[in-house]
Amino acid sequence: MTLPNGPETLPFFQVLQAIFKPLETLTNNVQKYGDCYTAKLGGLGSVVVLSQPEAIEAMMTAPVDLFESGQSNAIFRPFLGSNSILMLDGKVHQRKRKLLTPPFHGERLKTYGEAICEITQEVTSRWQPGQTFSMRTVIQEISLRVIMRTVLGVHTGKRAEQLRQNLDEMLSFFEKPFNSMFVFIPWLQKDWGAWSPWGKVTRQIKQIDTLLFTEIQERRANPALLGDDILSLMMTARDEEGQPMTDQELRDEMMTLLFAGHETTATAIAWALYWIHHLPEVGQKLHKELDELEENCDPVAISRLPYLSAICDETLRIYPVGLFTFTRMLKKPWTLMGKALEKGTQLSGCIYLLHHRPDLYPNPEQFRPDRFLERQFSLYEYIPFGGGNRRCLGMAFALFEMKLVLMSILSEWQLELNTNKPIKPVRRGFTMAPEKGVPMRVVKRR
Fold first, then answer.
1. First CA to last CA across the chain, in angstroms?
2. How many angstroms separate the CA atoms of 51 and 361, rounded?
3. For residue 372, what pLDDT is reported?
4. What is the largest CA-CA distance in the chain?
5. Which residue, 94, 205, 296, 409, shows the most beta carbons closer than 10 Å to its own?
6. Of residues 185, 250, 223, 268, the one with CA closest to residue 11
7. Helix axes 113-124, 395-412, angle to 10 degrees
């Protein structure tokens, strides 16, 4: 197979570079090999990395039946299961997207706004002037509670507490970049008992499974327990043939939402709070916009505030939580930008490199929200949630939550960073997160 040029380093070492020095590695590779190069990632195979808008557009607008993604997303299977939408292709994938889309859009989204603000206020009400903490840890608690209430409809009681604890323990495993090797190097995923690293993760997933299946089965047996949460909506949804999702499908989709939605949103909000306090002019401009809000303002109106929206967009541009779009594997030969690619070639858009193109984003290392007020970027120039038929279903929900949590915190509290040093992104499992979690201090209530 003839592939575009790329680093000739041994695949295992390329994997280690991707884990421990991802941004430096990406920047060096694109400077040396150009907008389209091949990375060899050991057990994950060779991947053609794209960072040119035209190439990304061609990939995302190509006929759906040209690619399959489920096989390339196998890295997520140990956590999410084989029935997760990330593992599916073709008609089965289209069916699942239709079933999962309604809860995250339109009027349904509005119903979650009050819960998001209420949970944020509940968590932050415990703060005291002078208190210091990792902001990412705090936001992770808020985000998890939001997910528990809006997605599962379970936020109080023994089962909810057990579920929160198990999820926290599983995700905290990836706080150390070293442990990310267990994600990207499949042969490390060996269960050598309860005290082995992967053994602990495996047992936590099993405990979460038990709790989720119990919740699903109780609602099956007693429909009166069904509410307006996303799990209930999924349980009542029917496909074109009138068929509901199975218990296993529901479990896998719940894990996808819990694992992906909670972790990524918490990271994005923590980054936003860092930039707002690291750059005084950004914070001042945002507070001016928030101060002009009417009391008891509609959450939807808050989500439409221009500068708040620009801050969220720029946060997701400069350090996207995920560095790549989901990988697509060619099912037949295809020509991309004059390059003939054979069947079996894996392609992925690099979100980070695209978002740091100087021709699109002048001074790309500078955090400048105004760039999103000065022009509108296309679906192939700005892709924090991926794109095409693989774009994140929870995009609208995640942005809605980001804006409401930021508004709720900044309207009530005056905070400051607990360090003068710039905070850099580090590997945290599948994602990139702020180093040391953005240490902050409570100054006073506003």
1. 62
2. 13
3. 98
4. 63
5. 409
6. 185
7. 40
Tokens linked to 171: 């995700």
From the CA atom positions of the chain, what is the Rg in Å?
Answer: 22
Residue 83: both structure tokens together: 């029935």
Tokens (6 digits) for 44? 């994950």
What totals of helices (H) and strands (E) does the chain contain, helices first?
20, 12
Structure tokens at 46: 């060779």
Residue 335, beta-bridge partner list? 340
- Given a contact cutoff of 8 angstroms between Cβ atoms, the answer to whether 85 and 256 are in contact is yes
Q: How many CB atoms lie within 10 A of CB 72?
A: 21
**Single-letter amino acid, residue 386:** G
Structure tokens at 120: 């944020």
Pull the structure tokens for residue 339. Answer: 């390059």
| pTM confidence score | 0.92
* Tally of CB atoms within 10 A around 283: 18
Which pLDDT belongs to residue 61?
Answer: 94
Using alpha carbons only, what angle is made at residue 218 by residues 215 and 223, rounded to the nearest 5 degrees?
Answer: 115
- 151, amino acid identity: V
**Of how many residues is the chain composed?**
446
List the one residue out of 232, 229, 249, 255 whose CA is nearest residue 96: 249
Tell how strand 346-349 and strand 46-50 pair up.
Answer: parallel
pLDDT at 37: 94
Domain boundaries defined on the chain: 11-445
Identify the pLDDT of residue 155.
67
CA-CA distance, 101 to 111, in Å (whole number)? 15
Looking from the CA of 91 toward its CB, the CA atoms found within 13 Å total 3
Query: What is the CATH class of 11-445?
Result: mainly alpha
**Positions in the chain short of pLDDT 50:** none
